[in-house]
Amino acid sequence: MSPQVPKDGIDPRGPRFGAAITATLLLFVILLAMPGASRPPVEPWERATQPAFLLLTGIVVLFSWGAAAGVARHPYGVLFGRVIRPRLAPPAEREDPRPPRFAQLIGLIVTGLGLVLALAGVPFALVTGAALAFVAAFLNSVFGLCIGCQLYLLLVRSRVLT
Question: Where is the chain membrane-spanning (predicted)?
Answer without folding.
Answer: 17-37, 52-72, 102-126, 132-155
